[in-house]
Amino acid sequence: MSPTSPIVVLDSGLGGLTVVKAIRAALPHERLVYFGDTARLPYGNKSAAAVTGFVREILSFVRPLQPKHVVFACNTATALAMPALRAAFPELTFSGVIEPGAKAAAAAAGAKERPTIGVIATEATVRSKAYERAIHRRRGHARLLLQPAPSLAPLIEEGRDARDPLLRLALKQYLAPLIKRNIDVLVLGCTHYPVLKGLVARMMGEGVAVIDSADRCADDVARRLGAAGLLHPGGDSASANCVDAPIDRERLRCFVTDDAERFASLAPRFLGARVATPEVVSPERLHAATERDGQAFRQAG
Ligand code: DGL
To answer: What pLDDT shows up at residue 296?
Structure first.
């Protein structure tokens, strides 16, 4: 592992590309590998055991690339799988999106003694109470309102955008209880939601700070790599991208478990740039990678 090794970014689907966008802006020289588990999304209605199993397979698959860092660009996977997987991959360093999001929310609440902070997220993230813990550690007196929004990520993955009536209706229903309670801050607790940030801000009205954790997560990655002496030195040979061409595979290599064309066609909405058609890794290939990993581990032990 060295400063020129890649950073792996993973999510259930397209949402984690909002984090890739922020990392590319903060760290333009880094080589990124993205994994979207499109065959098995949504993660948000699955159990901790299922999500941990999926992410374990993804990590076994990317391990041979010797990533210098792995970003869980998925709140659900951060909450449900990240703590359990640290022990299984001791040579990898992980970071997620919940701590940076909670930090930003606590800061946005300002000087108010008892701010009301709302979070919309998947059902699994809400159930995990990860946001309660992370926010209360910083603002012990904050009132928290956690709102599950189970249909949002699937609707966004379908390609529906802020103009879509079905998506607007779902969002209106999910936000109504938060609007009623006059919250001060709203955290977008799923990496799919930043594509709706403008609409959410309009629906919530002025005076509500809407937080998306992508930028904070990118700052956190930059800080971790800097502290470890692993920032890419820059001046590499990968060609600078011309505006309309897909991002060079050397800079952003994408893998998905299904439907590569759909991923490539929707990616610009999340990333603000085009990607080359991703490589498809079937769930069976992922199982095989995990098996091989397990065998090597048993032999080494
Ligand atoms: N983007 C993911 C998150 O941040 C999950 C969406 C899903 O697969 O349910 O939670």
So the answer is: 67
Three-state SS for 145? Answer: strand
- Check if 242 is active-site: no
End-to-end alpha-carbon separation of the chain, Å? 22
Structure tokens at 32: 């990124």
CA distances from 92 to 205, 242, 261, 283, 284 (A): 42, 33, 30, 22, 23
71: number of Cβ within 10 Å: 28
DSSP calls for 38-94: TTT---TTS-HHHHHHHHHHHHHHHGGG--SEEEE--HHHHHHTHHHHTTT-TT--E
Catalytic-residue membership of 217: no
Give the pLDDT confidence score for residue 292 in this predicted structure: 85
Q: pLDDT digit string (tens) for 228-283?
A: 999 999 865 454 555 567 889 889 999 999 999 999 999 999 999 999 999 999 99
| Atom in ligand 1 nearest the alpha carbon of residue 150 | 9
Look at residues 230, 166, 220, 156 and name the one whose alpha carbon lies nearest to residue 193.
Answer: 156
Catalytic residue among 190, 217, 242, 254: 190
| Low-confidence spans in the chain with pLDDT less than 50 | 237, 239
Q: What is the pLDDT of residue 145?
A: 98
Q: Tell which atom from ligand 1 comes closest to the C-alpha of 44.
A: 9
- DSSP line for 200-264: HHHHH-TT-EEEETHHHHHHHHHHHHHHTT----S--SSPPPPTTSPBPTTTEEEEESS-HHHHH
Helices 17-26 and 260-271 meet at what angle, rounded to 10? 50
Could you give the 3-state DSSP secondary structure of residue 279?
strand
Rounded to whole angstroms, what are the CA distances from 32 to 61, 67, 231? 15, 9, 13
* Among candidate residues 87, 92, 97, 91, the one with its CA nearest the CA of residue 11: 97
Looking at residue 193, its amino acid is Y
The secondary element (H helix, E strand) that includes residue 300 is helix 283-300
Whether 14 lines ligand 1, by a CB cut-off of 6 Å, is no
